[in-house]
TrEMBL record:
Domain Tyrosine specific protein phosphatases: 163-200
Protein name as it appears in the record: Protein-tyrosine phosphatase-like protein
InterPro entries for this protein: Prot-tyrosine_phosphatase-like (IPR029021), Tyr/Ser_Pase_IphP-type (IPR026893), Tyr_Pase_AS (IPR016130), Tyr_Pase_dom (IPR000387)
One Pfam family linked to the record: Y_phosphatase3
GO molecular function, one term: phosphoprotein phosphatase activity
Top-level taxon: Eukaryota
Amino acid sequence: MATPTYFQEQQGLSSLLKTPVNIALDPEAVSRIVSLPPFLPIPGALNLRVVTAPNLALNTVYRSGAFFGVSPEAFATFTKEYNITTIFDLRLEEEVSKNPDPVVHGVEIVLIPNASPFLAEKKADDTDLPSPGKRWHLSEFVENGGVDGYLKMYGNVLENTHKDAYRVVFEHLKNNIQGGILFHCTAGKDRTGILSALILELVGTSREEIAHDYALTRVGFEPWRELLTKTFMTQAESTFKEPGMLAFAGVNGINIVRLLEWMDEKWGEKGTGGVEGYLIKDLGLSANDVEKIKLRLKKRGAGGSAVKPEA
């Protein structure tokens, strides 16, 4: 059989990324794709890849799902080979207790207490969110391809459930600690996908590229798809027969683009995008902090504003 051309590979990948999560992908195609960058071919890995963009420093940021399929030996070899010195675990305490990351000498694993992104936290003045303790209703994922439901759920992640976790990650980047960072949740889809998008947006990545990074999860979690879709159905207390379930479990790049647009409207100002505004107004970083983070993340020569000396 002839080797597919680059164009054919891209066309094939585009088709795979659009496949609903209740339909299995061609195993050979998946195996070929996850053996190539940005994926990292670590045995048993789930959705593991390096985050790449034209302006992002090489081999600095990594993302993945949980490491329950990776042996401690393979995990240690992987972190050493890619110079990963800090891992941010975005999962809930009960998720971590069931499948903790392997402990590796020289690698700091950072756990930040957080709440489930699949539960809504109602504020006193917020009538748009479901009552406390109630799961997002799948009806919110029926219209508009599920985008409205994702905006509500992801907005809650940013403002409530993972606000502290994201702050810790960006504080780490501000301090310019050497070595690569890796962050992950269970599937590497929502909590991880949002953080990856924030970082990519911060270094001036196009929305199209950010959407592609987000959508690659469709292929990245395919080897574990049956296990993960059962988890999604448990979270939603539903099956794929119920309207909205496919969108809730899916990975559509437009979801992350709409989130960034919403952030621009909520936190953006003239000359400052929504992500920068979120870091400053919601996470409590200074404008100078944000410039330090950009310098840490950007390739040399990629531009950026001057950082003011510390007082």
